[in-house]
Each structure stands twice: as C-alpha cells, then as structure tokens.
Write a structure and sequence with these properties.
- It is a single chain.
- This protein is an all-alpha fold.
- Helix content is 87%, strand content 0%.
- The protein contains 5 helices and no strands.
- The protein has helices spanning 2-28, 35-58, 62-76, 79-91, 95-122.
- Helix 2 (35-58) runs antiparallel to helix 3, helix 2 (35-58) packs parallel to helix 5 (95-122) and helix 4 packs antiparallel against helix 5.
- It is globular and about 50 Å long.
- 35% of the residues are buried.
Length: 123
C-alpha cells in the first residue's frame, strides 16, 4: 500500500509539472511543431535515464524508484498527447511537420535516456 501511495503522490506532482512546462514552452514557440510536449517528453526521458542509472549504481530503494518512474515521470511525460498532436498535424496536412515531430521525438527521447544513464553511471 505504501508504494501505491508514493506512486499517487508522484503522479500528483508530475501532471502539474508537465502542464506548466509544456504551456510555458509552447507559448514561446508558436510554430506548428508541438515543442511543449517534445520538451516534456525529452526531459522526462533524460530524468528516467538518470534515475535508472542511479538505481543501477547505488541500489536505489524500489519504492522510490517506482514512485519517481511510474508516478512522477509517468504522469509528467505524455505519449497520448504526442500521438494526438501528430494526428492533428496530419489532419492539417502538415505532413512534414508530423514526420519531423515523430522523428525528433523518438531520436531525442532515446538519446536523452542514453545520456541520462551515461551521466548517472559515470558521474
């Protein structure tokens, strides 16, 4: 039960953090690409890599690992918004922007996780 409560607490913090950062970024970049969601998902991937790298290095408590990864980062990052925004770009016939959104998101997310793990393991 403690783990479930920690996940709920992490989620309660992650969702508002996502909303605030995404709106802040998107409000400053009115281009067709959804930079707010991209920023949230990329920073979330970096944090996830750091977290799992630290867990591998220091044996982080499983409750903390689940609370932060599933709770905070699970509600902070947003695959559903990423896919919805990509579909909207396709509906608007912004095919190049849709393709760029998918490619940039995947490449940046994978690179961010790898960078996070590398930093945590070699810090």
């Amino acid at each position: 039960m403690t783990t479930l409560l920690l996940v709920a607490l992490g989620s309660a913090l992650g969702a508002p953090a996502r909303c605030l950062l995404s709106r802040f970024i998107q409000g400053r970049h009115p281009w067709s690409l959804p930079w707010g969601t991209w920023t949230v998902n990329t920073t979330g991937s970096l944090l996830l890599g750091l977290l799992f790298g630290l867990a591998a290095r220091s044996g982080l408590d499983q409750r903390v690992l689940v609370a932060v990864s599933t709770g905070f980062l699970g509600s902070y990052t947003t695959f559903s918004t990423f896919t919805w925004e990509t579909v909207r770009l396709v509906e608007d016939r912004a095919f190049l922007a849709a393709l760029a959104n998918v490619a940039l998101s995947l490449v940046a997310g994978l690179a961010a996780v790898a960078a996070g793990i590398a930093v945590a393991l070699h810090w």
